[in-house]
Amino acid sequence: MLAIGTVDGNQTTTKISNPKIITLMQCKNHPEVPAVDRCAGCAESFCANCLIELHGQKYCASCKTLALRGTPPMVEEATVPCKEAGEALKYSIIGIFCFGIILEPIAISKALKAKKMMAMNPRLTGSGKATAGLIIGIVGLVLWVLGMIARVAAIGHKQ
Q: pLDDT tens across 35-56, in order?
């Protein structure tokens, strides 16, 4: 399969071996035109006609005015909730009431994994959920273990 497009006014042809993998960026202002780069201010994709180079960076029309004033453009990065953090909290709370000996270690594992993932990717959110899941998981596991010891001790005293 061939992809045909224009870059800086020149027509280019690229062979695509797996078309399901390739997704071309489209210009935010001109959806029918492929984007050539992203704005340094807002990180949106734009075609060559929509970008201007200032101070070695490419800016869109909105961000260039901020760049000319010397005000750094406000970049808001999209955040993504960490699925593992939510699962850790869910498992730890359910584990308090039932199957704690099984669910609490899973909750602790998921909370630690979520904390590691959030440390590697700052866009992930849910640090509070991961911490709560970790603490509740540890406390719940300790309570379940103490409950089991108490039951075994009570059975030993009856005999």
A: 888 888 777 888 989 998 887 8
DSSP letters for 2-40: EEEEEETTEEEEEE-S-TTT----B-SS-TTSB--EE-T
Highest mean pLDDT among 20-24, 60-64, 107-111: 107-111
- Alpha-carbon span 19 to 68, nearest angstrom: 40
Distance spanning both ends of the chain, measured CA to CA: 79
SS3 77: coil
**In the chain, where are the structural domains located?**
2-69, 80-158
Instruction: Report the DSSP beta bridge partners of residue 58.
Output: 53
CA–CA distance, 31 with 140 (Å, rounded to integer): 53
Burial of 60 (0-12, 13-18, 19+ CB in 10 A): buried
